[in-house]
Structure formats: C-alpha cells, structure tokens
Amino acid sequence: MSKSKIIEIFNVAPSSQVELPSETSLPLTFFDILWLRLPPVQRIFFYEFPHQTSFFFKTLLPKLKKSLSIALSHFYPLLGHLIWPHDSHKPIIKFIKGNTLSLTVAESHADFNHFSGKNLSEATQIHDFLPNLNISHDQASILALQVTIFPNYGFSIGITSHHAVLDGKTSTSFIKSWAYLCRKLENEVSELVSPLCLPHEFCPFYDRKVIKDPNELEAKYLSDWLKQGGTNNRSLMVWDLEVPEDSFRGLFQLSRLDIEKLKEFVVSKQKGTRTENKNLHLSTFVVSIAYALVCRMKAEKIENKNVVMGLNIDCRNRLEPTTPATYFGNCIGARLAIVKTSELFGENGLIVAVEMLSEALETIKDGVLNGAENWSSLLLEGLAMADVKMIGAAGSPKFEVYSTDFGCGKPKKVEMVSIDRTGAFCLSDSRNGDGVEIGFVSNKKAMEAFASLFVKGFPAATMVVCGGAVVIHNLMTSLRIERGHIGEWDRWPNESVFVGTWFDKGIQVEMKGQTEGKPPPKRIIIEELPLETSLPLTFLDILWLRLPPVQRIFFYEFPHQTSLFYNTLLPKLKKSLSIALSYFYPLLGHLTWPNDSHKPIIKFIKGNPLSLTIAESDADFNHLSESLKMKKIIKDPNELEAKYLSDWLKQGGTNNRSLMVWDLQVPEDSFRGLFQLSRSNIEKLKEFVVSKQKGTRNENKNLHLSTFVVSIAYAWVCRVKTEEIENKNAMMVLNIDCRNRLDQPIPATYFGNCIGGKLAIVKTNELLGEDGLIVAVEVLSEALETLKDGVLNGAENWSSWLLDGLTIADVKTTGAAGSPKFEVYSTDFGCGKPKKVEMVSIDRTGAYCVSDSSNGDGVEIGFVSTKKAMEAFASLFVKGIGS
Length: 883
What we know:
Layout (H helix, E strand, L loop, with lengths): L4 E8 L10 E5 L2 H4 L7 E8 L4 H6 L1 H15 L6 E3 L8 E5 L4 E7 L4 H4 L5 E2 L16 E3 L1 E8 L3 E8 L6 H17 L32 H11 L19 E8 L1 H15 L13 H17 L5 E9 L17 E9 H5 L3 H14 L12 H8 L5 E8 L17 E4 L2 H4 L2 E5 L6 E8 H13 L22 E4 L2 E5 L11 E3 L6 E2 L11 E2 L7 E5 L2 H4 L7 E6 L6 H6 L1 H15 L6 E3 L8 E5 L4 E2 L9 H5 L14 H11 L19 E8 L1 H15 L13 H16 L6 E9 L17 E9 H5 L3 H14 L12 H8 L5 E7 L18 E4 L2 H4 L2 E5 L6 E8 H16 L1
Parallel strand pairs: 6-9, 12-14, 14-16, 29-31, 31-33
Antiparallel strand pairs: 1-6, 2-5, 3-10, 3-15, 4-5, 4-8, 7-11, 9-10, 11-17, 12-13, 16-17, 18-19, 20-21, 20-24, 22-27, 23-26, 24-32, 25-26, 28-34, 29-30, 33-34
Helix pairs in contact: 3-5, 7-8, 8-10, 8-13, 20-22, 20-25
C-alpha cells in the first residue's frame, strides 16, 4: 500500500449565504433501501498539478474549500447522517444545522504517473488516497472527501459515498457542481457579494413524493434486510467485502471506431441465422459490456457456470409519472442477463453476449419496475450461489466524468475504486474523448490474459491516419508552382496516409498531393455551382502574396488495418469533403493574375476538382505524434491595396507579376518542439507579473494579461536566452484578427485573409535580465494598446515590415502564428480528437505557433531552432515555471 501523510482535516460547513433549515429529514425510498448495507461507492479523480504542496495550499486549496462550501449549501443532505429511529419503520437521512463535511488533505510521495497511467496496478494500492465513512450500527455518515497531493506532479480527489443515499448520477452531479463552482471563483478567494448559482442541470430535486410504490416494494426490501444477520436486524453496518488476494486493476479503452467495428461484426454474423430478426440493442454500452464480458470469461477461464450480468437502469425518465433528471437519491433499477459461460467461449461468443443483453433490455418495454419484487432477493442471494458468476456494471459514459474540471484541466484518470470488492465492471467516457473506458479487477494472470485478448479482438497492426515519414516535411506534398498560376502537383513520399492540409497564405486554398508512381487519386466534383466565377484579392490577401504556404498536420489514433480505414472512415471523409467543398468552392479554383487585371484573382470554373491523396507509411507514428464570400465589405480608404501591389511588383524586377512564393529554406540542424503551459502554469505567470510590477514606476501600466500574451512573452524570453541573442533588437509580430475590429465589422465567417499586424520591439538585453518576463509582457501590451487607435493604424507600413524585416541585420524578427481560439484539437472526423497537431511551416519562417492543447489544459507553443537551443529551451521552460 502507498502510505500517505495526513496534513490536515477540515470540517467544511455549508455557505452561510444560503439559508438552510434548522433541522430536516429525507425518508429513504425503496430505490435507496435496496442498497442499504452495500459497501460505499469509492471513486478517485487524478489531476496533473506540477507544483509544490505549499503552492497548492496557497492557490487551489482555498478555492476547493470555498466552492465545496457553496456546493454543500445546495446539496445539504450530504452533511447529514443516515439513521433508523426507533419510532420509524425505515431509515431516514437526518440533517441538523451545524453539520459539517470531513475534507482530508494528505500528501503522498508515491508514483503519481503510475497511479494515473494506463498500466495494471495492485488493486489495494490506491486505497490510501480515499477517506472512510463513519459507520456504526446506529448511524452512518453519507459522504467523505480526501485530497491527496503528489508534490510536483499532481493531486487526487477521493470520494466515498453511501450507496443507500446516492446513486452514480446524483454523486456525479454533486462532484460536477463542486467543480463548476470552483472554476467560477475569482482568483482571489474572498466573500462573494452574491452567492454563485448552479446551472439548472445541477440543481438537486428533493421531493420524495414523486417516487410511487404501488407494489409495496419498500416493505419487501425492508423485510429482507431485517432478516439478514438476525431477527429484526436494524443495523446500518455495511457489508465488509474483502478485496481478493492478488487483485490487480486495469482500465481498457474502446474507441468509437472499435465500437463501430464490433457493431458491424455482430450484424454481419447475425445475418442468415435463425436469430437474424432479433431486436438487438447495439448501443455503445451493450456492445462494450458484451465484448468485455466475453474477454473476461475467457481470461478468467470460468467454465461450466451460469454468468449473470446485472445491468443498472436509470429509472428517472421511465417511471410513471417521470422523475426529474436532477432527482436526489437512488433511482436505479436492474435487468439481469443470464447465459452459460460455455456459450461465450465459442466463435460466436460476442453475438451470444449481445443477444442476451438485448433480451434483458427488451423487457423494459413491460415496465421498468417489472420484476422489481425480486431485486432484493437476487442481490442478497446471488453472491452466495456456487454455480453462478455475478457481475455488475457500474458507472455510465453518460456521466462524462472526464469533464470534471476544477479549473486546472480535465482529469488525467478517473478510477471507480470500489469495484475491487464487488467484482463489477465500471464504464465511463474516456480521457481523450474517444469512445469508452472499461475498468475491472481480477487476479494478475487473468488481467494479463484479458489485456491480450482485448487487443487481439481487433487487427493487431497499427494503421496511421496522418501518420508519417521520418522527416515530417516529407509528409507534405510539394507544390509545383508555375509562372502565372498554381498548377499540378509534384510528388508524395512513400507510404503515408495524410489528412493534413495546405493553405496558400495568399488565397487560403486547400490542396492535396498526388502519389508518385500510383494511379491518380479520385477527383471530387461539386455540382450545382456557378459555371464560372472569381473573387478579387483584397489588400489583406495581397499582403501575403508570395509568402510560403502554411502547412498543418493533424495526427489521429486509428489502431486498425488499412483495409478497415478504406471500408469505414475513408468513404465518410470523401463524402463530407464533397459537401464541405460545395460551401467552400473557391478552394477548387486557382490563383491567377490576368493580363487585363491590375491584381490577382481567385478563378473558379465548374468542373474544378480537389485532389485528395491516400498514402501509407511504416514510419513511427508515436514519434511523430508525441463561409461567407463578401469581398466588397473590405473597405480600403487608405489605398493599401495599391501600396502592397506596388511593393510586390518591385520585388525581383520591374512590374514583376509572378505568383512564385518565396523559397525559404529550413536552416540546417533544425529541430522542432512542442511545449505546454497548463492553466495553472499560466495563472502562476500572471501572478508573478502582477507581483513584480507592484511598487514600480510601471505599476499603473495597462497590462494585457491574456493567456496569449503571457504565453508568448514567456516563450519569447526563454527563446532569446537559449538562442543567446545579445545586443540586438527583438521584434515580435502579433497577428490580429481584424474581422470585428474594422470600422464596419465583418462576419466571423468571412472567407479570406483578414489579419493585421502589431509590432512589439525591445532590446534583447532587456529580455535577458531578471525582469525579462515583465519587460516582454509590457512591450506586448503596449503594442496591443495601439489597437485603440484603429486596427489599420500603421497598416501602410505592413508590407515594408514584411519585406524588409527579415533582412535587417540587427533585428531578430519572430512571428506568432495560430491561436488557441482555433481549437484545432476539436477537429474530430468521427475517430476521436487528434493526438497531435503540428504547424509545419514555422520551420521556414521562425515563428511560434500557439494553439489549444491536446489534453484541453492550457496552450501548446511550438517553434523550431537548433538542437542545442531547443534542449536549452526545454530545460529553461520547465525550470522557469517551477521557480
């Protein structure tokens, strides 16, 4: 066991800003009584938090306590006790004003990454991160919480709840309410002027009268419990179920594509059989449980038994009358699926499992309480039957436990700990948002066998979507750009599947390559479009006329054979691309500069196709992955178009109308890196800047302490130090989206360039000092302050900066591409979010790329430099945050 040290135990009272009754009680319903003596439900949420314990105590802990206090004012029965008064025929929840909740804060030096990772672990190792309920024969506490800090790595929140008071939906609602309130609290913890309100979907509903009991199930369940362990046994002691020796816990993921494949397999195998017309419930829940059940029976080698799969059914919307979704308490029914284990061992084991689960769920049509008179008998007797293997299914993907964010990002892992005593599966959503996670506990040998069977059920080879070649540039097609137009495509590297995009910076045209030595890719033609049309470039487009194309790659996990990709995802990609192009049809055109036009145009002719190349690669995927078209609304009172055209025409000759883009080379010894700043890191940087600015002559400066500014400032300072850029001017170019900043704001979906620029200039020596971060934030803020004078103020100089800035000897020019607001990691083609997104073209421009992060916590910053500088940057980047 991983022993932790208790630092402090807080008794958290409900917020005084909400008036609570002096004393009240809630009676248990038959739904609650069913679970009266079952062991508490225990769950742990693991969060990354790479800081010292002292920092946790100063920053996050006060918010956790404050928000918990507010949450408890809404969920005040959790502060009470479960009791069974002598004058009551059944137990009740008793709340008295002054009740508090126990919040334990502990510290552990155990391996955080081990417990929050995907590896198998001894089942009891994490028990130390959980609190216990105070339970006696006469009364029981309802909820206890424990926060365990793993210094410099993370923290966990352990929840232990009484099963007779809370079902999974209610306990999850409470945790999410607490997290919601914690996120909403201001940075400085202080008394709020008005109490924070919970969204409607979190507000608990307490009226027990909505639960009707025409079949007197309450009396039946009470009678069964009173007979347990004696005559008229009114004890509230819960069952002391032991965790079997040699128990290991594991968490396994089925992606959406895995689940779709299982569904297709079941349907295909059922065709032409006597059960073809059976009504199958091919939900994600059923297919996932069926597959896990078959793998588990085989791994545990359970032969010649009946296996009983207990399915929990949320009765809230199935009762008559229906019960509100936020009903507080248990409202769970059951359906049992029974089958011989030998039937699950055969070739059609998965089909059998799906059919028997479907048959059980079909009976809900007869009423969700049909058969409820037997639930308590099945619960009490089922565990003791020698020839029966009872397995339950706890949790639900619909709870979305991985969305429980206390302000420091989503959980790295969520464990349902108590399944090690009950033997149940636990189902939840997944940490990466793709599919479901299935957890259970068994002996080590069985768990290892299960892990092998679980994977072997799918093709073992890993197919790569957006997979790659050894050098990431070779993933991208080379453009053959001929004088006067963008022409055909050049070559593809061998064997790579690619869903990345090219965007010509001048016209935002999406382009794909053609495979060398292979048949031409299929063309996608859009119908019902204009026969011929064109879009003129604006000055905002012309500014970028000859800059190299912007290149981006989206990496997605897809652990299947190429043939499955062709049969499942590719048809959808092609169909959806075809539909998308019908809206974005200018992307099918060409950039041309007609002889009779004073500027380039985008020319579209009906019949223009878009080339989509499919390739395959054997490169190391894990290595590479660790519309409105309204040009007339762009006003140009300062004749910027003429200025920019004139500057480009003078480049490379007289009246040079070439559309050839600059051939910027990637410097030798270039390495790319992607670095993350979590929300907590960013908040710490902001606090540092504010604290350092106090009491100085710059105290009253208007700082732009946005996530973007602080992140860029920090990366800028680290980079200047590691690249050892001394005695120069450092110029940071900030791209500004002009859409909502022009005198006549234009729609957010405007098609084309609408980016302006602001320059922040400072001596590199000023960034190298102790206050380098403060200086960087101040100069960036000063540059952004000029937006008040108009976003186009100084725009007459933009083309000069662009053309001259890269060649000035004593100036180090750096740009900032991308934006966290683009939310590139939400780009889901139906197989989950990207594992990684790379802005490839920054290796030619030297810019930073800023985006949202793969795990949803903070931002990612990418750039390219020499290997020595990148290694120094990585070290400084981490040390700077830690200090």
